[in-house]
Amino acid sequence: MTQPKADLLQGTLDMLILKALSLGPLHGYGVIQRLRQLSDELLEVEQGSLYPAVYRLEQRGWISSKWGVTEAGRRAKFYTLTKSGTKQLTAEEESWDRLALAIAKVRKAV
Amino acid sequence: MEWFNILKARLRALFRRESVLRDIEEELRVHVEIETEANIERGMSSDEARAAALNSFGNLSRNTELGYDIRGAGWLETFWQDLRYGTRMLMKQPGFTLVAVLILALGIGANTAIFSMANALLLRSLPVPQPAELVTVGRGDGTGEPLSYPDFVALRERNGVLAGLAASHFAGVSFGNGARSEMMRGELVSSDYFDVLHLQPALGRGFLPEEERSAQPVVVLSHGLWQSRFGADPQIIGQTITLHRQRYTVIGVAPAGFNGMTGMFRTDLWLPLMMLPQVRPMFLTSLSNRHDQVFAAIGRLKPGISLAQAQTAIETINRGLELAAPPPVERRRDPNEDRSLKLAHPQGIGLPHYRRRAQLATTLLFVVVGIVLLIACANVANLLLARAAARRKEIAVRLALGASRLRLIRQLLTESALLGLLGACGGLLLAFWINRALMALKPPLPESWGFRLDLQLDATALGFTLLLALLVSLLFGLAPALATSKPDVVPALKDETGAESRRGRFRRFNLRNALVVTQLAVSLALLIAAGLFVRSLQQMQKVDLGFQTENRLALSFNLDQEGYDEAKGREFSHQLLERVRALPGVRAAALTNFLPLGFMGLAEPVVIDERATSPENPQFAAAQIIAPDYFRAIGTPLARGRDFSPQDSANAPAVAMVNETMARRFWPNEDPIGKRLRIGNPEFNPQPREIIGVVRDTVIGSIGEEPKDVTYRPLAQQHSQWLTLVVHTSGNPKALLIAVRREVQALDENLPAQEIKTLDEIVAFSFWPMRMGAELVGTFGLLGLLLASVGLYGVMSYAVAARTREIGVRMAIGAERRDVLRLIVGQGLVLALVGAGAGLVLAFAVTRVLRRFLFGIGATDPLTFIGVALLLTKVALLACWIPARRATKVDPLVALRYE
């Protein structure tokens, strides 16, 4: 946690959560952990922003939730990517890639 | 559909608030526990681990709330709270609620009723599948029927834009035989009529193509006729019925609810159009002559074709037809007549002429009921403001506890919306009743026209009412909500009513007074409009018609249609007159081809003294054909010369009479007696006639028209198969109804039983629009006045209640009751006078738009203005006097001890 953290662009969190869940169902803490691992500890998502984002995604129908049991035998609420969530993730990744490419091109032009 | 998912989730949360909250709390708690365990695994002590987990989480309850903001019902929940709270508040004051709902119901109900009228007259589409694809074909300004049969066939075959085109011609058909025969409304239609309309007959079949190739006596009955005349006989197909004395085979029954092509006039049966020459012998050439435009047409757009595209295509074909065979001059109503074809979606009344009138009338009525609704809104706003005073403490408490003003306004507006919706419910009940009354006011058209006005509260009307209720809620609720929620916490909590009396209660121009003044002004303007209609009706009834209507009966025949030839027709008219004249109680009886102010008329070209007339601009005059004694029977005095006599027979020299206007126009400063004229279509080279007499002018088409030129010919010299019998009786004409009908039946028992009407009843149709105006605008005007005076009464009662202490003091120091009365009435009278003054100015500015509806008076008729202003002032005085009297009953001791 001493490393400098990358700031999250507005709206990127949604995509990251969908991405994290695309690898398998997770509970809230699990999402944070997976994002941290995947980003080599660069991304630290705040719980205070995680849950509102997760709830919003659920209301839009992109993820679904279910109470289940963790490996340690603890009851927790697990989130799963839905079919329309998968579609949404693809769309967001594509638009992100386009944006990234565009920014890269602009920066190289200097 | 995302928003729909969200709405669904919110609605679900609304009813599971507790479980949603618990779910979030549980989830967050689990999160903290898992993180704590992870921290312990990383080597922290359990206390440290828990503290770190909690710390990383921030404010737990804040996070729960954040979660609930998303997962909860959100705005729906506040709305639900407001709704429950509002319902409680309304139930707490049932008196207030009842009065407000009643007032709103009156205003909304009137609007709903007028809307359902506009809906029926102007909006409703034909009750057939996919009505939006249907188009009617009209010519020029849309009056009259547009197409001849050859034109119709050409359009049907050559166009590429319509999936089908059907023709239709309306005709009265006598139905049955013997004493039971009567007139029915028939439509003579092309074979594809029911197919174009996408209608499946309820029984049997529609017409076949071969039934448009040759005349075949087959008939499709309307569902209504099948039920009323044939007891819904399932074996009806294949049976024969008698129509205009011919046998027809029933081939089908139209589906229920379908009443023909024009929504307003019922069709009883459909015949193939090839039967036209037999049903209407005067239309002998109508199936071959391209200038006999007797068919209306309705088509269905092909998928993907717009109205404009179809319009262009149809008009292109029409232009070709027009160029190939332009109509002869005498067939044109005027040389520059617009001959283009226009397409339109059929809605409401199909006939453009009536449609325009209906548009005008409904617009006027909408303005009127709109004003009534505004007055009602002002009343409710005033009630809400009065209640605001009573709720100051409650509002102040809520403000003090931290409710935002916006939240309070939302709460108050929800209450208004509740009131509005309750008012709409009441309004719907009322509209149902008003619709009944409106349907009873339908025009006094002949029964055989089959006019029907079907006012329903259908889905469109319900939608309109709901929308109106919400709109109105905002209108009457917003100002009181703003005023009520004004943060004014400290004095309200201290129960300082005195503070307000110092600041606002005696301010003359506060919101409540302004509302009352507006109400009075607007209702005065409305009443003046009503007064103008009443006065116009009076003026109209004073007009000299030029003939007498008392003690006169009239009865019409169409002998052509009954298969009479001229000889038989002459014999019939001769015998009929003889028989009727012999009846006791008959002073005079005569025949005419049409009656002034009747429903038909005939104008013919005239040539005066062989003066040259340009063929482009022929002279026309109304052309009555009458039997001797007509002028005596109808009570029109002779001005000069002599009347027709039995000696003016077919073999005698041809004679004519004219009215004074015609005499003056063509023979100014000359004696018209002995002059000559020809009457009739120049194509047929009519014989010259000698003028033997001049009669006084009568109205012909409508009351108040410019005097028209009228010619008269003797029936013996110019036979007509259209005949109206006029009977002048010595006593009550209704007493002779049966005797006259018996004489007709004795002559020909197969003549359909016609309605015999008194001339008074026939002429009543001419007064009908003005009478409707006077009755409807008058009723709504009085309703407006009632509401406005209730408003004034409310404000004055409130003022008296607020000034109880002051009045007590005044009386304690020696004021007489009279002084108190004057004080209160004076205050009210100021409001009334300001309102009346503003109303007069308003009326002066706006009644000029009524000019086209009025008759015989100006739009600023001083008598009406003064009379109505006086009426309003009187009613206003009464509305002030009741609370003022209450004020004089104040007991000074009680008043002073109060508080």
The H-level CATH homologous superfamily of chain A, spelled out, is Winged helix-like DNA-binding domain superfamily/Winged helix DNA-binding domain
Distance between the termini of chain A: 34 Å
The structure class of chain B reads alpha+beta
Low-confidence stretches of chain A: 1-6
Assign the CATH architecture of chain A.
Orthogonal Bundle
- Gap from first CA to last CA of chain B: 61 Å
Strand % of chain A is: 5-15%
Oligomeric state of the chains present here: heterodimer
Radius of gyration of chain A: 15 Å
* Whole-number tally of structural domains of chain A: 1
Question: What would you say this structure looks like, in words?
Answer:
The complex is a heterodimer of chains A (110) and B (899). Chain A has 110 residues and is α+β, with helices and mostly antiparallel strands. Chain A has a single domain, classed as Arc Repressor Mutant, subunit A (Orthogonal Bundle). Chain A is built from 4 helices and 3 strands. In chain A, a hairpin with a 5-residue loop joins β2 and β3. In chain A, α1 crosses α4. In chain B, the strands form 3 sheets. In chain B, strands 1, 2, 3, 4, 5, 6, 7, 8, 9 and 10 form a 10-stranded mixed β-sheet that branches. The longest helix of chain B has 44 residues. Chain B folds into 4 domains: 72 residues, no CATH class; 216 residues, no CATH class; 318 residues, no CATH class; 179 residues, no CATH class. The two termini of chain B are 61 Å apart. With 899 residues, chain B is an alpha+beta fold. At the A-B interface, α3 and β3 of A face α1, α2 and α4 of B.
